[in-house]
Backbone:
């Protein structure tokens, strides 16, 4: 039951992109086509779960154990940056087709604040390891859902005749606002 | 580029939020009031100036292969400082900004300026670049915060302009952030072309 609450809350109610404003850069950057949005979602899911597990273990067994909690920001970002590199190298060797599909998105992920944000929130919410995995996975699905929905909307947006100043980013932001409004309808479920 | 041009670019021509669309997460996430926007902007400005200074000094010693990771470590060090200073001296603001303070590390604006400007320039122009970009970012966040606070709660910097009953709550909530920023950028685009 607890897990269901975590999952629904992370995907719909507290959606990373539309309610918490994490990962806006890829949300606006790679959402022009549904296919690239799906690829980005795959890469983010993979790295987010892995990063959350690793940072959780670092927090518990290194930072807490030695009382150096103030090193959190530095150590987490370093771990995430090197993890992304590692995943990239390993995918290239182990599974070339998967690397083909996700490869271009991997370098972009280091500066995706959703990864670091979810890692830090997991610590703040005091989850245990299993809850942390479920939370990060659900957050990644929430990110993907918002991204794919938004990409679908944007494909149609290209065909609309807009005033000059509204073209591009402004129109996309207003549409994102409407999408966020739709997601607000979920609040109150949990 | 003269010093004056270098200083002025961050406010309008190369404004981080309105033109370059960098640092959007904090721009949307913390601007539910003008004060929060200003606080976040100034914290980012501090990190930006300090990291620009240090990166312009050290960039000639850093090998190309580990350039980005070492930049990130330098930035993270200053972010940790801001985090601790704010927790000590402005606990209320620190509470409000929450997770977005450590997230200054992954603000594309800071890393972007480090890579594009500070690593290629001397200390003095890098300081000016940091001040200019940082204050431009603060200005954008404060403007967005003021618009949202005014329409949402009828206040400006905490001072009541009209009764809260006439405010549109949606502007303080998440969707309002996207919509207000969208129209603000459209407005700036219009000004630029005119």
Residues:
């Amino acid at each position: 039951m607890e897990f269901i609450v975590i999952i629904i809350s992370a995907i719909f109610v507290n959606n990373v992109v539309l309610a918490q404003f994490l990962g806006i850069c890829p949300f606006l950057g790679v959402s022009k086509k549904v296919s690239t949005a799906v690829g980005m979602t795959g890469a983010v899911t993979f790295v987010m779960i892995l990063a959350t597990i690793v940072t959780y273990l670092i927090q518990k067994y290194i930072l807490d154990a030695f009382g150096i909690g103030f090193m959190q920001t530095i150590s987490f970002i370093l771990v995430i940056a090197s993890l992304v590199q590692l995943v990239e190298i390993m995918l290239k060797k182990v599974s070339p087709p998967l690397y083909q599909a996700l490869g271009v998105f991997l370098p972009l992920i280091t500066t995706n604040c959703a990864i670091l944000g979810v890692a830090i929130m997991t610590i703040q919410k005091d989850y245990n390891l299993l809850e942390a995995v479920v939370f990060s996975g659900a957050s990644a699905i929430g990110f993907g859902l918002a991204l794919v929905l938004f990409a679908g909307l944007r494909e149609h947006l290209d065909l609309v005749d807009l005033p000059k100043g509204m073209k591009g980013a402004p129109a996309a932001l207003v549409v994102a606002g409407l999408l966020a409004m739709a997601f607000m309808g979920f609040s109150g479920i949990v | 580029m003269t010093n004056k041009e270098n200083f002025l670019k961050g406010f309008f021509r190369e404004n981080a939020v309105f033109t370059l669309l960098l640092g959007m997460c904090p721009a949307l996430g913390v601007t539910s009031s003008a004060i929060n926007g200003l606080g976040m902007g100034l914290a980012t400005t501090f990190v930006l100036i300090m990291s620009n200074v240090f990166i312009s000094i050290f960039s000639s010693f850093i090998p190309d292969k580990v350039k980005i990771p070492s930049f990130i470590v330098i930035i993270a060090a200053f972010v940790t400082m801001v985090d601790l200073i704010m927790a000590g001296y402005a606990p209320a603001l620190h509470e409000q900004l929450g997770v977005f303070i450590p997230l200054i590390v992954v603000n594309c604006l800071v890393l972007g300026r480090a890579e594009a400007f500070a690593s290629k320039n001397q200390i003095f122009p890098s300081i000016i670049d940091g001040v200019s970009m940082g204050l431009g970012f603060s200005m954008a966040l404060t403007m967005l915060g003021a618009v949202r606070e005014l329409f949402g709660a009828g206040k400006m910097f905490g001072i009541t302009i009209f009764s809260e009953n006439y405010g549109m709550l949606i502007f303080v909530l998440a969707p309002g952030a996207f919509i207000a920023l969208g129209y603000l950028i459209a407005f700036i685009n219009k000004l630029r072309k005119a």
Q: What stands out?
A: The first helix of chain A runs from residue 2 to 13. The mean pLDDT of chain A is 86. Chain A touches chain B at residues 18-25, 28, 70-74, 76-78, 81-82, 110-113, 116-117, 120-121, 124, 163-166, 169-174, 176-178, 180-181, 184 (CB under 8 Å).
